[in-house]
């Protein structure tokens, strides 16, 4: 399936189903990554890595469609960070590609936390948890600090973000509130008009 087909199919499903899909794919991707590290190697390891990154790419798309109801631009910004991180991981764009990927993922988690905090369809404490997880991933900016804090930083990062995606898997989102917030955001973009004060300040030419 192409990326365009994936995006089209995601747009067509309900927000609650998107949330549960994101949770399920996240769990699947994490379990695949764990099996990659512990049990697999060689070609099987490469295949598992490709599956894991494809799953996280789908999770990123689903998060974009969920949280664009809060802010389309910020949701797109968050998704872009995660896609850049996945690119670093996939192509090893630097000698420390995996660590850089984790840092980009940390920024993604912090931005998603902010979007959750501003949302009306998820509990705010979830935003705090995933943002804290994102801060834990940012310790990989300094390899010496990350090494000193391991495994505590990794545990905090994983618990912080996993709590959100497990919630999405089990509870989904409040569809009615999601629709209301999405409608409000669309109306704000589509119906804005300059205020009378702005119109008065606009120079006219005879």
Description:
The chain is mainly α. The protein has one domain (3-201). The radius of gyration is 20 Å and the shape is globular. The protein has helices at 3-12, 15-38, 42-67, 72-91, 97-118, 124-137, 143-149, 152-171, 175-190, 196-201. The protein has ten helices and no strands. Mean pLDDT is 84; it is low at 189-202. The longest helix is centred in the first third of the chain and has 26 residues, at 42-67. It is 80% helix and 0% strand.
**Number of domain units:** 1
Most strands sheet = none
- Topology pattern, helix = H, strand = E: HHHHHHHHHH
Distance between the termini: 59 Å
How many separate helices?
10
Radius of gyration, in Å, reads: 20 Å
Q: In one word, what is the shape?
A: globular
Structural class, by secondary structure, is mainly alpha
What is the multimeric organization of the chains shown?
A: single chain
Number of strands: 0
Unreliable stretches: 189-202
- What share of residues are in beta strands? under 5%
The percent range for helix content is over 70%
Let me know the average pLDDT.
84
Q: What features would you highlight for this structure?
A:
single chain; mainly alpha
Give a summary of the structure in a few sentences.
The protein has one domain (3-201). Helices cover 80% and strands 0% of the residues. It has 206 residues and is mainly alpha-helical.
């Amino acid at each position: 399936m192409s990326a365009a087909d994936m995006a089209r199919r995601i747009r067509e499903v309900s927000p609650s189903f998107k949330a549960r899909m994101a949770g399920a794919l996240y769990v699947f991707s994490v379990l695949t990554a764990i099996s990659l590290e512990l049990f697999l190697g060689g070609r099987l390891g490469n295949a598992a890595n490709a599956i894991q990154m494809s799953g996280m790419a789908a999770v990123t798309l689903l998060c974009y469609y969920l949280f664009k109801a809060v802010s389309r631009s910020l949701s797109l910004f968050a998704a872009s960070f995660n896609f850049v991180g996945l690119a670093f991981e996939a192509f090893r764009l630097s000698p420390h590609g995996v660590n850089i990927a984790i840092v980009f993922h940390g920024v993604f988690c912090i931005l998603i936390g902010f979007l959750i905090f501003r949302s009306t369809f998820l509990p705010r404490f979830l935003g705090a948890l995933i943002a804290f997880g994102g801060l834990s991933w940012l310790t990989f900016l300094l390899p010496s600090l990350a090494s000193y804090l391991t495994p505590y930083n990794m545990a905090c990062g994983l618990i912080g973000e996993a709590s959100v995606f497990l919630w999405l898997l089990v509870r989904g989102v409040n569809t009615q509130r999601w629709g209301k917030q999405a409608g409000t955001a669309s109306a704000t973009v589509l119906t804005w008009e300059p205020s009378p004060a702005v119109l008065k300040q606009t120079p006219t030419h005879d």
